[in-house]
Amino acid sequence: MIDIYEIVGLLAALLTTASFVPQVYKTWKSKSADSLSLTMYLVFFVGIVLWLIYGIHLKSLAMIVANSITAVLSLLLIIFKLRYK
Amino acid sequence: MIDIYEIVGLLAALLTTASFVPQVYKTWKSKSADSLSLTMYLVFFVGIVLWLIYGIHLKSLAMIVANSITAVLSLLLIIFKLRYK
User: What is the pTM of this model?
Assistant: First the structure.
C-alpha cells in the first residue's frame, strides 16, 4: 500500500529526474559536451549509485526508481562526454 | 547511533551536493546565468523541497542534510538568474 508520503517521494523523483532529461537530449542532439565537466559527472554518478544503495536499504520505492533512472542518465552523459570530445 | 547505511547515505549526500557547488560559484563569479534554464531550476527546486519533506518522513539524516543544502544552492541559482538577466 502506497501512502501519501510515498506519493510525495515519487513526485519528488519525477521532478528532479525530469529536470535532468533536457541536458541529456541537448548533448545527444548537438553531439557536443564541451561545457560538461567529466569530473563533476563522475562524482555525481558515484553519489547517485550510493543514494540507490541507501534507498534499497530504506526500502524506498521513490528513491530506488529515481536513482536508477538518474544513474542511467548521468552514465549516458559520461559516455557522450568521452565519445564526442 | 549512526549505522553503516547512514554513512553510505551521508557520503551520497556529500558527493551529489558537492557536484552542485561549482555551478553556483561559477554563476556568482561570472555574474552570468544566460545558459541556465529558469524553468528547469524551478522544477528542480520544487522537487528538492519534496525530497526534503520525504526525508523528514523517513527520518533520514542524510536526506534531510543533503536536500536542505541543495534547496539553498538551487534557490541561490534562481535568485542569480532573476538578478543577472
Answer: 0.84
